[in-house]
């Protein structure tokens, strides 16, 4: 008999015989009635066992099977308004496919409070909780929305090496690995490769990329292994063209989630609103002025701290803006590949801020070979280390720019998750390498 998911059965199937399978979520006894709640990916199914009507063997299995064991049940659908989804199953056969050991290290019903650390230590059981797996169903929609949107705009998806020989974002955040006789590193972003692609004629590319960052931070905002949506596009005038792509992409993702995730969003105490558009583009200098007026002084030339970003977020939200760009950061604090502004103190760079946190970072890039070599040297780096990257700039490189959007940051901010670790299946942080 064909197996059905809980959400494929409807009360109108009253009287039909079905097969279901899943995990024993909970068991209740009420007089002569025994209830098993069976959980599958679609939700909960009430299996009702009136002692008089079911066989002794079936009743005994249901009475004794340990919680979280995997069962397959054949039975009759009965309309029942008080049950989840308005139906229950009266079983005629129960197969125990896999017995769960007791006691459980974590209770997937969520009745017992647990710390995030215990949850992450027992992530497989944690992911059985509908509220937790919902995050990853939404993440899936987020990535497929991004893919669909970018493809519709002429971007093609690429994969670049995760093992690299040189740093792309500056020297300090790399994980060294042993690569035969050579020194190598885990990629901290696809930056250099996505730029090299601009010299191939494939002039709009994106990658759903893994970043490895050996940052020492132990905060609710940072991970050592993250996923980002990275884009690069050619024939731009300046960074404004790149910001247009970011804005459209973010809106497309939010719209898709609003349209397709209402069921997954039920457990979150949050309404996902479409942000007001067009996203304002305020310069770094304007941001500093706003902060100064609010009593927070940021010395010119310094990056915005977490505190100043948060304050700016509050000031912008007062004006109705949950998303906005901060543009024209000082050139000194940006990576070597960033295009200088006409005013050489600044750069053609931007961040997209969401609720007072950086979610996207991008810029127009330098496409002139000599200027690029000069900037590499000015950052105290050796052009020799960037030899193959620089080659791509020698034989015709169009003007270009791009950005990286942190998937976990976006998911965390969108769903109001208290810790970025909740937005990854198996997070990697300073202390966590397992599971
Ligand atoms: P950047 O280093 O700003 O830019 O990274 C891009 C986006 O990735 C996310 N992010 C992180 N999220 C969690 N933990 C971390 N440790 C972490 N580091 C980064 C943020 C951030 O905005 N090459 C450039 C992008 C470009 O210009 O194309 C880059 O890597 O959301």
Report on this structure.
There is one protein chain. This protein has 435 residues and is of the alpha+beta class. The protein has two domains: 6-98, Nucleic acid-binding proteins (OB fold (Dihydrolipoamide Acetyltransferase, E2P)); 130-423, 2-Layer Sandwich (BirA Bifunctional Protein, domain 2). It has twelve helices and 16 strands. The strands form three sheets. The chain has an eight-stranded mixed beta sheet, with helices on both faces. The radius of gyration is 27 Å and the shape is elongated. Aspartyl-adenosine-5'-monophosphate is lined by residues 169, 189, 191, 213, 215, 222-223, 226, 228, 230, 358-363, 402-404, 406, 408-409, 420.
What is the count of DSSP helices, taking H or I runs of 4+ residues?
12
Question: Which residue ranges are poorly predicted, with pLDDT under 50 across at least 5 consecutive positions?
Answer: none
If you consult CATH, what is the topology of the largest domain? Answer: BirA Bifunctional Protein, domain 2
Helix and strand pattern: EEEHEEHHHEEEEHEEHHEHHEEEHHEH
Give the overall average pLDDT: 95
Strand order of the largest sheet: 6-10-11-16-15-14-13-12
């Amino acid at each position: 008999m064909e197996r059905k998911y809980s959400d494929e059965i409807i009360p109108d199937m009253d009287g039909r015989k079905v097969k279901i399978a899943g995990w024993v979520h909970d068991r209740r006894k009420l007089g002569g009635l025994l209830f098993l709640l069976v959980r599958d990916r679609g939700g909960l199914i009430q299996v009702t066992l009136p002692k008089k009507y079911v066989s002794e063997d079936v009743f005994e299995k249901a009475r004794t099977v340990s919680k979280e064991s995997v069962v397959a049940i054949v039975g009759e659908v009965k309309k029942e308004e008080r049950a989840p989804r308005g139906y229950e199953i009266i079983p005629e056969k129960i197969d125990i496919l896999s017995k769960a050991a007791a006691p459980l290290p974590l209770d997937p019903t969520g009745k017992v409070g647990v710390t995030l650390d215990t949850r992450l230590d027992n992530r497989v059981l944690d992911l059985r909780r509908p509220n937790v797996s919902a995050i990853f169903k939404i993440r899936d929609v987020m990535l497929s929305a991004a893919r669909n949107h970018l493809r519709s705009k002429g971007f093609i998806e690429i994969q670049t090496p995760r093992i690299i020989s040189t740093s792309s974002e500056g020297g300090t955040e790399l994980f060294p690995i042993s690569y035969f006789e050579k020194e190598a590193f885990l990629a901290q972003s696809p930056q250099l490769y996505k730029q090299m692609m601009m010299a191939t004629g494939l002039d709009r590319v994106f990658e759903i990329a893994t970043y490895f960052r050996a940052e020492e931070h132990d905060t609710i905002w940072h991970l050592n292994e993250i996923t980002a949506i990275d884009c690069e596009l050619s024939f731009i005038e300046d960074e404004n063209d790149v910001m247009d792509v970011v804005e459209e992409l973010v809106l497309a993702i939010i719209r898709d989630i609003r349209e397709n995730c209402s069921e997954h969003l039920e457990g979150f105490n949050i309404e996902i609103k479409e942000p007001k558009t067009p996203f304002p583009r305020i310069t770094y200098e304007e941001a500093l002025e706003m902060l100064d007026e609010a009593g927070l002084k940021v010395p010119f030339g310094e990056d915005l701290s977490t505190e100043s970003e948060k304050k700016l977020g509050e000031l912008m939200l007062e004006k109705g803006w949950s998303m906005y760009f901060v543009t024209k950061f000082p050139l000194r604090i940006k990576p070597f590949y960033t295009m200088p502004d006409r005013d050489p103190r600044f750069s053609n760079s931007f961040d997209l801020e969401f609720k007072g946190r950086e979610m996207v970072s991008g810029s127009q890039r330098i496409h002139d070979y000599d200027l690029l070599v000069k900037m590499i040297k000015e950052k105290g780096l050796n052009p020799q280390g960037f030899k193959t990257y620089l080659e791509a700039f020698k034989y015709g490189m169009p003007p270009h720019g791009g950005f990286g959007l942190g998937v976990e940051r976006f998911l965390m901010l969108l769903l109001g998750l208290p810790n970025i670790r909740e937005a990854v299946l198996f997070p990697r942080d300073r202390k966590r390498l397992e599971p």
